[in-house]
Design brief:
The structure holds two protein chains of two kinds. By secondary structure, chain A is an alpha/beta fold. Helix content of chain A is about 35%, strand content about 25%. Chain A has a six-stranded mixed beta sheet, sandwiched between helices. Chain A has a four-stranded antiparallel beta sheet with strand order 2-1-4-5, covered by helices on one side. In chain A, helix 4 (about 115-125) packs across helix 5 (about 140-155). Chain A is globular, with a radius of gyration of 18 Å. The termini of chain A are far apart. By secondary structure, chain B is mainly alpha-helical. Chain B has 15 helices and four strands. Chain B has a two-stranded antiparallel sheet with strand order 1-2. In chain B, strands 3-4 form a two-stranded antiparallel ribbon. In chain B, strand 1 (about 130-135) and strand 2 form a beta hairpin. In chain B, helix 3 (about 60-80) packs across helix 8 (about 185-220) and helix 8 packs across helix 10 (about 255-275). Classes of the chains: A alpha/beta, B mainly alpha. The interface between A and B is medium-sized, with 32 and 30 residues.
Amino acid sequence: MSKKIAVQIDDLTVAYNYKPVLWDIDLAIPEGVLMAIVGPNGAGKSTLIKSILDIIKPIAGSVQIYGKPYKKQRSLVAYVPQKGSVDWDFPTTALDVVMMGTYGSLGWIKRPGQKQKKAALEALEKVGMLAFKNRQISQLSGGQQQRIFLARALVQNASIYFMDEPFQGVDATTEKAIINILKELRKSGKTVIVVHHDLQTVPEYFDWVTFLNVKKIATGPVKDIFNDDNLTKTYGINYKVAVSQ
Amino acid sequence: MSNAQIEIQLIASLVAIACAIPGTFLVLRKMALITDAISHSILPGIVIGFFITHDLSSPLLIIMAAASGVLTVVLVEFIQKTGLVKEDTAIGLVFPALFSIGIILIAKNANDIHLDVDAVLLGELAFAPFDRLSIGDTDLGPKSLWIIGTILIITLGLLFTFFKELKVSTFDAGLASALGLSPVVMHYGLMTVSSITTVGAFDAVGAILVIALMIAPAATAYLLTNDLKKMLFLAVVFGVASALTGYWVAHVLDASISGSMTTVLGLLFLLVYLFAPEKGLFSVLYRQKRQRIEVSLLTFLLHLRNHKEKEERHVKHLNEHINWQKVRSKSVLDLALKNNMITIDHDIVSLTNKGKKFTTEAIDYIVTNKNSEIENMKDRFFLFRG
């Protein structure tokens, strides 16, 4: 089964203050997978996503989205940052945050109109948050905030979704709801890439996995490569302690 | 009112509006301190601009000042990026250095001009009507009115054009960057506008008070609304209201205009901080007190439900069984009675049917980890709140 490559990364090296956080990463992510990026704290998981999205400039290497640089393919990509990366006291509503997902396709200066609002409302409905559309975002629970972020990505109607720890600090119901939406995305042919912490749920949630710890350890189908060997290589000999945390 | 009085109030109002707009975004970006730095470090820019043109009202002064304002931001970020010191320390290092360069330049070369240190720090709105713009014999009004008016129009134009971009890059710079709406451009754009506004306002209110006009109205508005557009609008209203009130306070007290304006801003913030309906100090305290009583009430009802034996339900013994130091037992008992949750018969407390129902539902929510539902439940059951 030969699949198109959605994301191709070659020789990617990223450094903060001359200290490499990602070292010579080669990675090809096939179209239509639901992939987890796993690795210990400080492994560079978020950095990898951010450098694919051109938020962080790598010191070497290249990233291609369907064969072209990210800058030319923005409309194909949606991004869900870590929930903690924004100030939830910002004076705005759930609907408005979701509308922000449409800003990319609008481009500079143009303002969102009825069409964008309709798309945002639909996305809110998909994540079960329509009733909260006018709620100020600080008055939402952690799980609800994460759903809003997911809706904002859905509204972009992208081909590839990048998510940075979408399950962090959410309740079990929200986690199930989110993973169901992600599985639906995959079913409709989208590629979903998730930075993930909970190793126990990897086989249940994902069909593809990348082990990362500054270097790439392994990448491939969960059923083939999610094993003790790779876990030990990524987390060290005591990975089971890390898992049980 | 004399013409000069009207002109001063007009200038003060325009300055307030021009400051409140970038100020709102600075407050939301948690960059209030950077205005402090900018307002001081534009000084060398102004002085160098003056040396080049020998004209205090040349547009070059504004450009040079804006450039040194942006330089401040660049230097602060550069020092911060070394990872050796934190942002506040970097700000504290940069602006005194630039400001002192400005002071030395004035002292060495420009002793005889109006650029004295007092005017720089405090400004003097009362003199603004004397410096007039005229073409031939036609008087076009005070120069500072034209300067701040132009700056305000540019600011408003940029705000309307880039509102969406400013909003998303302020709320979520990562997303803005991924969407191709360069947050870096927005950042430096905002810094440039802030610097230019500071220069424009500088003549009227001075380097220190311009900070108050940028930050205080926005901070006050922040306490009152959950909508960015309303926050901008309220900040503008508070800015103008304080500017005008301040002017008349100064008039009555025969005191400094800029000083009075800032005092009014401070008082306005204090009032809102104390009395704002949701985020104000008193309503927060009130909510906390209510929360405490209601949690105690729930604990109390659960206790009653779990204990059939009379000695556990005796009014006198309740203090020992439930930790009620913080809330007076009486207020909890009163609340329970008012809401028909309990009956008291010969000092023995029993749950009513309503109390039983309430308690059962509450337990359901607690064991299924849906604590947030309890708030909604209280709305349904309570006739009176704690």
